[in-house]
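User: Sequence in, structure out. Go.
Assistant: Echoing your sequence, followed by the structure tokens.
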Amino acid sequence: MCHGHYLTAVPLTPLIGHTALRARLNEQVVRGTLAASILFTGPAGIGKQRLGLWLGQRLLCDSPTADGPCGACPQCKYAVDGVHPDLFWIFPRIKGKNEPSDPDVDQVREYYAEATAERLADGGIYPRPDGSAGIFLAVSKAVVQRAVLLPAMARRKVIVVGDAERMVSQAASAESANAFLKLLEEPPSDTTIILTSSEPGALLPTIRSRVVAMRVRALSEAEVREFLALPATEALRKDRSIPDLVRAMHGAPGSLGDADARAAAVQRATAMLDAVTRDHDRLYRVAYVQGSAKSRGPFADALDALSDLLHRRARDAADNGDARMAANCARAMVHVEQAKRDADRNAVPQLVTHALLAKLADTL
């Protein structure tokens, strides 16, 4: 959104990788065939939001080259600095304690101006939002209202919605929900909407049906090494060797920003699976350690990690010809998605975990 006085001296990190997809997107822009509403999908941390911002910069650039945005015009400089008034970057955030329940458009702009500046303060390498963060109803309203206005500086507007699966259900406001879906289906001619999601299955079907999905691949080992050579990564490397980091990142450079939190989430998710598949006597103990309602953020992260583990098991089972295990893992992922919805409704993590583990024990 319009970032006002929240200026930063640290621009976004350069976009590494995705060369073939960038070339295809650039060609579509040149030919005028780029879809008005796009969904980038792929594993967490591989740079989908950064790719969306790159595409936004390309669409706003005054003097694009054969490879993409020029990087030198005012449009490019404002975009890279995170302060372009026509490039809206929306992502999950935690509501402040003193924020009104229904902020107006200008207040939403201020909140995201500050949140964007915080992300850029570390060179644009930021941890994945924890489970208590969301894209709330007021934000959807603000996007819809801003989309119908004329561009402030460029020839068009671009809206990038990161982690779109974190959009809070709009069932309580049918009018707002319909307006957002209408915007996705028929954006103004001067507006492009780019959604990103690591869990496209968690998106509302009405949203998925209104966007053109594009799969974004993980980075190669050489591209991860190129990313780790950036000055902005130095403090986050924490004296770990480059080979160790390359192996741990699995082609997802964004994982560098939340390695510790992600490791903790994976550990909790693994404990859940072990209790289900190896030691049923541990079900109550594993459920108990998920904590109280105050631990919903880490709990949601553990559920995300559990989804990833089940997805990998399903893929491995399919590769090995074990159709039954692959199907069981797919059914298990449905139970995990229900647990995520329960967590969103402020259910106690201990109760949600026990119910989930009981279902998984019958499924796996």
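User: And one key feature?
Assistant: Strands lie at 37-41, 87-90, 157-161, 191-197, 212-215.
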